[in-house]
């Protein structure tokens, strides 16, 4: 049984539009119950960017510990925070806001969530490895920064809109450290060459969110020993993950990353004085919702 809501209960939530399919309330509320914290997590659908500004005022006035931010406001959230962590600035997106002493501190937990998922689910660490990231939005930015900070040998960003990929790589180049190659592809020939050489390929585009979406690229391009990570999560595998697995390639969906980025947000909001957010509880809650939805669809 969840704790009763009282005058001391603090709020958390997810801001975005649309939020019909979000798994975050189920994951977070299950975690709060397991941790015994008096917080409640609610979906906060904000339909227009103009309303986001009013929402931020409310965040400071109400008893929020923080909020997660999702599409389409991750980039706007960068401007709305009083302070933004360096990682989020480089990624070009904020997905977690912490309300601390009346100030809004912006973070991006997608990169940490992705690395945690890759390591815990597939034993993959980026140091010295060749990585391809499809997409150039907020999620791709977080991934590219995480791989460069994780000392990947090369990071190639593949995106249909070349200018966006170039802008992303331009931001990431500031922290390129030991990463020898930071590349951009927007045509098929270049993408094929990069994928054939890659140890890890990440889909950070929205392709695959609809069950009708075709695979983002031919899985024959993947090396048999490569790892594929599709950030998309839904009740069944995407066609990309399904075909990669059929071809014998290890392929992860985005659920592990979703759980880890949400758990990292709780760790931030807890300011170190709560136990580490229980990943297993959060994953079980998310999987239960996905199973329920799959049942409804059948
Ligand atoms: P975003 O900022 O809107 O970026 C979307 C990206 O997808 C852009 O690079 C866009 O390319 C590309 N794209 C869209 N339709 C495409 C198509 N038909 N063909 C090729 N490329 C296409 O979104 P985001 O926030 O980065 O999220 C991207 C994906 O990651 C979503 O599926 C989201 O659910 C997932 N995600 C998962 C997690 C997780 O925890 N598992 C976390 C964050 C995001 P252009 O630049 O050319 O428009």
Give a verbal description of the structure.
It is a single chain. The protein has helices at 24-35, 49-61, 76-80, 86-91, 110-122, 138-149, 162-173, 188-197, 239-246, 255-269, 279-297; strands at residues 10-16, 39-45, 64-69, 83-84, 96-100, 103-107, 130-134, 154-158, 181-185, 200-203, 227-230, 250-252. It is of the alpha/beta class and 298 residues long. It has a six-stranded mixed beta sheet with strand order 2-1-3-5-6-4, sandwiched between helices. A six-stranded parallel beta sheet has the order 9-8-7-10-11-12, sandwiched between helices. Helix 7 (162-173) links the parallel strand 8 (154-158) and strand 9 (181-185). Helix 5 (110-122) packs across helix 6. The chain is globular and about 60 Å long. The model has no long low-confidence stretch (mean pLDDT 94). Residues 71, 74, 110, 113, 135-140, 159-161, 164, 204-207, 209, 231-233, 254, 257-258, 261 line the site of NADP nicotinamide-adenine-dinucleotide phosphate.
How is this structure best summarized?
The protein is of the alpha/beta class.
Kindly list the characteristics that best describe this protein.
single chain, 298 residues, alpha/beta, 6-stranded mixed β-sheet, 6-stranded parallel β-sheet, 11 helices, binds NADP nicotinamide-adenine-dinucleotide phosphate
């Amino acid at each position: 049984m969840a704790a009763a809501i009282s005058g001391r209960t603090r709020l958390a939530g997810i801001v975005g539009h649309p939020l019909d399919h979000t798994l975050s309330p189920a994951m977070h509320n299950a975690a709060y119950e397991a941790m015994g914290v008096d917080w409640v997590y609610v979906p906060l659908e904000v339909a227009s960017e103009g309303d986001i500004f009013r929402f931020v005022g409310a965040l400071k006035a109400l008893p929020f510990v923080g909020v997660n931010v999702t599409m389409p406001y991750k980039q706007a959230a960068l401007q709305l925070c009083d302070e933004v962590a360096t990682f989020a600035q480089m990624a070009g997106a904020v997905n977690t806001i912490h309300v601390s002493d009346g100030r809004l501190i912006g973070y991006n937990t997608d990169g940490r969530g992705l690395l945690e998922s890759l390591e815990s689910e597939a034993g993959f660490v980026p140091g010295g490895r060749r990585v391809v990231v499809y997409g150039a939005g907020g999620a791709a930015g977080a991934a590219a920064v995480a791989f460069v900070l994780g000392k990947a040998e090369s990071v190639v960003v593949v995106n249909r809109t070349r200018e966006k990929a170039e802008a992303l790589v331009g931001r990431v180049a500031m922290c390129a450290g030991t990463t020898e190659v930071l590349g951009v592809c927007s045509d098929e020939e270049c993408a094929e060459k990069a994928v054939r050489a890659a140890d890890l390929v990440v889909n950070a585009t929205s392709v695959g969110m609809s069950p009708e979406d075709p695979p983002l690229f031919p899985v024959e391009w993947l090396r048999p020993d490569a790892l594929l990570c599709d950030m998309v999560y839904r009740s069944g595998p995407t066609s990309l993950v399904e075909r990669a697995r059929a071809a014998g390639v290890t392929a992860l969906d985005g659920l592990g990353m979703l759980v880890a980025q949400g758990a990292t947000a709780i760790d931030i909001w807890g300011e170190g004085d709560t136990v580490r957010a229980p990943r297993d509880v959060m994953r079980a809650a998310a999987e239960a919702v996905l199973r329920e939805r799959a049942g409804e669809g059948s």
